[in-house]
Amino acid sequence: MLHDILTVSFLTAFLSATVRLAVPIIYGGLGELVAEKTGILNIGMEGVMLSGAFFSFAGAWFSGSILVGLACGILGGMAVSMLHAFLSIRLAQDQTVSGLALNLFMLGVTSFLYKYMSMGQSYQKIPTLSEIRIPLLSRIPFIGEAFFARDVLTYVLYALLILTFVFYKKTNKGLSFAAIGENARAAASAGVPVHKYQYIAMMINGALGGIGGAFLVLTQLGVFTENMISGRGYIALAAVILGRYKPQGMFAAALLFGAANALQIRLQVVGIGISPYLLAILPYAITLIALIGAVGKRSEPEGLAKPYLKGAR
Amino acid sequence: MTFSNFMEIFVKGCPLILTGLGCAVAFRTGFFNIGAEGQFYVGAIVTTMVSLYAPGMPPLLVIILALACGFVCGGLWALIAAILKARFNLSEIIVTIMLNYMVINFLGYALRSFLMDKAANVPQSEKIDVARQIPVLVRASRFHAGILLALVCVAVVWFLMQKTTLGYELKAVGLNRRAAAVNGIPVVRTVIYSAFLSGGLAALAGGIEVLAIQKKLIEGISANCGYTAVLIALIARNKPWAVLVVSLLYAALQVQAGSWQRQSGVPSSIVNIFIGLIVILILAKDIVPYFRRKEGGSNAS
């Protein structure tokens, strides 16, 4: 059995699936990271991604254009994030309650709209983004196929990751954004426009989460199904914690979850005689174990989920 | 509304009352248990197994034993999240969601292997012996004895929260963890009690649903009530009697939406949107003083 698994074709397919399955989580995780750096905890990432998935499907279906679909997905994600932003920034409500409510609300809204849209007929797949092979790089054994024979959204993600890294590491603006999450009052007295930056961060949160959901529809599946995010939004939250609130760490953690998922899918394909239902437990179990393993090294922003009110003490 | 439709409100409300109570108890202690869905299924699986495999005993005893085992296992399942929270400060929201997906996949496995009814071609367990089912109480309806049990649970949880020291401690921890600790309340132990009770109540809902409604274990029997329960508890502000009222109102809407769907084709998931919207509106209620403050002029800030 082991020599079935340790073949070049298995490993190549496994690595390729790892990246493919990690991309939505990395998008969601990056959006969440930007929000949490400014002290806003968006438990509603699941709902943001679900909204992105549904509206990208609806947009692409009615317009026939992937680009319009993507734009709708981004707007759908942003709508949810902005609602959360309004509740937690302007109205200083409990961010956990707001995020949870939005998740369940979006589950209802997307299921309802999808049923309303489909009404008896079954949808065919919409066209998906095509693969773009990067010359030379995609020829690297194992890694080339996995990382550089992908779609445009994945390449954009690489750029965004580097951009985020540089932003927080090298720029003053990045320092200001990160300072809000640590101590909003201190940041405010240093002249940082706290609420404005928090809104900007939440817009990015929505856009990236929306793309994460849209990615599932526009490049992987070509269809929308009810509750199709199935916990990826929460796994993205876990990836941020595991990655210690750093883009590169979050990237590595998300790849780990992608790998867990890819492993269970590849094992099903190879057929090792274990029930697919048992294998499907694997990614969730690994998320849990990884979280427990990372205990004690937590480095969340000091002021996470604490509302900042101007003039309040 | 016909008589059987009216009774159906209680039938549909029963799992919501119990899971809603479970969420309310946990939320009251500041423990965000989103795992009612998974705990429901733990209860359903365990109750089914006890009912199917328990040796010859008086049927009533088997029912009680099956539900009690479900309760305990559901409680223990919720304890995983409570211990990880207390010991390592891991977010109970993420942990319970992961646990939910694990149980639901395990259920899929169980119904296709050791629990599968060999005679059926679909993933389901064998039918539970009629004597070991929870009996229907009102003729020409599905109003069953489990509903009374749910009502008793509401009263018991209310009593526990309002009239006992434990209830006082649960609420104190939820209000202010540090203040509770300073005043000598054992915070970790309190969270663990509340998580156990919370998981147990959700599991009880699963057990009752199997023994009274389905009479066998199948996939998807929760109908997402574990997630709806979160919203119900939030609307009810975690008060036991309010959970009862909100659950029954929700169930009434559900029954009504079922007939709308048949008549006019409006998908019944509109009820989910409705209840989600209510929670968001409750959160947004502070918008009124916000605008008033604005009108009041600059002296407000």
Main sheet properties of chain A = 2 strands, antiparallel
How many domain regions of chain A?
1
- Uncertain runs of chain A: none
- Helix % of chain A is over 70%
Name of the CATH first level of chain A: Mainly Alpha
Number of strands of chain A: 2
Separation of termini of chain B?
A: 53 Å
SSE succession of chain B: HHHHHHHHHHHH
Amino- and carboxy-terminal Cα gap of chain A: 64 Å
Largest interface: A-B, 48 and 46 residues
Number of helices of chain B: 12
Number of DSSP E strands of chain B: 0
Alpha-beta classification of chain A = mainly alpha
CATH overall fold name of chain B? ABC transporter involved in vitamin B12 uptake, BtuC
What CATH calls the topology of chain A is: ABC transporter involved in vitamin B12 uptake, BtuC
Top CATH class of chain B = Mainly Alpha
What this model shows, in words?
The complex is a heterodimer of chains A (313) and B (301). Chain A is mainly α and 313 residues long. Chain A has a single domain (2-119, 150-293), classed as ABC transporter involved in vitamin B12 uptake, BtuC. Chain A has helices spanning 2-5, 8-37, 45-63, 66-90, 95-118, 143-148, 152-170, 172-182, 184-189, 194-221, 232-242, 247-270, 276-293, and strands spanning 132-133, 149-150. Chain A has a two-stranded antiparallel ribbon. In chain A, helix 3 crosses helix 11 and helix 7 (152-170) packs across helix 8. The longest helix of chain A is centred in the first third of the chain and has 30 residues, at 8-37. Helices cover 72% and strands 0% of the residues of chain B. Chain B contains twelve helices and no strands. The longest helix of chain B has 30 residues, at 59-88. The relative contact order of chain B is 0.20. Residues 296-301 of chain B have low confidence and may be disordered. The chains are: A mainly alpha (313), B mainly alpha (301).
